[in-house]
Amino acid sequence: MPNRRKKNRFNVTENRTEPEPPSADVTPRQRRIRRVTVGFAVVHLAVCTLSLMQPIGLPETFDQALAYAQPYLRATRFGADGKPARLPHGRLDEAEIRVQVSGEAEPAESDWLDIDWGSTGVEATNRRQRFFSAAATLAENEQYGLVARWLRPLISGRPEAESIRMVRVPTLLSDVVQDNAPPVYQARILRRQDEINLANLQPTRLVAIAVDEDASSPSGGGDTTPPDDSPNRKATPTDRFSPPTEGRAVAP
Amino acid sequence: MNDNHAGIRSTISSDTGFWNPQVNPQRLIWLRGTMALSAGFYFLSALTDAALWVGHEGLLSRQSIGDFLSAADLQSEARYYLSPLWWFDSAAAYRVFLIAGITLSLGVVSGRVPRLTTWVLWFWIVAAANRLMMLAGMTETLLSLAMFSLAIATSTKRVSWWTGFGTRLFVCQFTIVAAVFAAGTLNGDVWWNGLGAVALAEPAGLKSIDWTEGLLTTTWVHDVLTFLIAFSLPAGILAAWHNATRKAGVAVLIAWSFAVALLGSQWLECLIFAGSATSFFCLRKPV
Predict the structure, then answer these.
(1) Looking at CA atoms only, how far is residue B172 from chain A in angstroms?
(2) Tens digits of per-residue pLDDT, B13-27?
(3) B87 and B74 belong to one structural domain
């Protein structure tokens, strides 16, 4: 039977009887190239596997090996880059982050307005969500300066905005404590000529204070006392006139 | 013992059947078209909010990212995110780049362009993903891996060793991604207690369809959906690697992608996933 070859419109020639000739007739040079290529493929697959598994958790040895492969993985975008390769787990950090601005320096709950992004599609919404989730994570790690740098472009086009905050929207899987948690980030916008600075208002945080047993305390020893730095507290003159250090918490 | 060594040698040897499989070129071309179409959708979706991210007023303008990286002391980590888009910090230039990406994708789908275009399209995907590195997720990783191996598979004029090697690489990459995806998913409690489908459908405000007020309010429905979604992915992958159950395995993987896309609105990621699952059909004998 003749070896019929048909060239299709996709520039690939189809061999209808034997799609692949036996590799016995390859030259030593070709064989060497193929061996190197297969070796590369095995290493490539191993490195990709490690990168995808990194968010789940890797032993330290693999973690160090992966550090050497980062130039390859980042330049080619083959790695997961720390992003988890999985379906959602219903965790708090997967909840929707909403960015709100207010024209009031000391806004009430009803003064906050969501930023209108327009109708840009699901993929654009996912991108925004990734960005603000990362910003929320930074805020939770008290990296307020970095959060301020990320949010500043949002404010520059809104001269009427006096305050900005990021809140987590409750889900069916969040509990009552999470639903009533303070904003992830809240800041006063301070403008000076062309310069925009954000003065962070720290959220409520419980602080354990060691109390001497002999000391007279109205609440008794070992009490857990919330400091007076809730987001709803009134701004003090210290807030207003302290140098607008970007992203740093204003001392109460 | 010797048999084991022979098996390992066979796997890593360049001349044996594993890295030199028989390929159905028509199906390979169909796969390349599907992936290129997905890349086109990726560029199209990025067009809708280009000005929000790139340009002097963008959230990820070059200045903004530079400030962030220097403040976080991450410059050395970031130097490998290579992209020509770093040279042009304007929304207009970014839009032109995306439109060029769409054109390239359509060219590869049509097949009326030189074979080198697949490599160029891969470069375009990586360049776009590296410019907005903080936003990139699994979609970009899947597209980059897929286009890289397809560029190898279709790099020669005729069906050759490289065609088989590239196709095998594609299938292996997809298997690894799907296996890690399944393991990562099952690592969460919600995928064991029946609430996984609800977690997938949340946050409802960001999804195309809100299932949390209708379908998923019934306990047995989200229990069954959670079970099916959690276990059909590893089952589908296992079935697709066996010649006898290959069609059923691929069908399960496509159904899984469709269900996840509907519930979680991860449309593009699931399109790439479903398209990649058909790569098993490109090999005449996958194992």
Answers:
(1) 8
(2) 556 678 888 888 899
(3) yes
- Tell me the per-residue pLDDT of B85-138, one tens digit each, with 9 for 90 and over: 999 889 999 999 999 999 999 999 998 889 899 999 999 999 999 999 889 989
Written as six digits, the tokens of A224 are: 């857990």
Shortest CA gap B280–chain A (Å): 16
Residues A105 and A35: their CA atoms lie apart, in Å, by 67
What domain range is B167 assigned to? 1-22+160-287
Q: Which of B116, B132, B158 is the last residue in one of the domains?
A: B158
**Bridge partners, A192 (sequence order):** A195
Q: Give the amino acid at A217.
A: S
Residues B34, B84: one domain?
A: yes
Domain boundary among B142, B158, B174: B158
- Interface touch B49/A76, C-beta < 8 Å: no
| Phi, psi of A212, rounded to the nearest 5 degrees | -65, 135
Q: How many domains would you assign to chain B?
A: 2
Sort out which chain B residues have CB atoms less than 8 A from A87's CB and list them: 181, 184-185, 188, 191, 196, 199-200, 229, 260, 264
What is the distance in angstroms between the Cα of B222 and the nearest Cα belonging to chain A?
Answer: 13
**Judgement on whether residues B136 and B164 belong to the same structural domain of the protein:** no
CA distance A226 to A223: 10
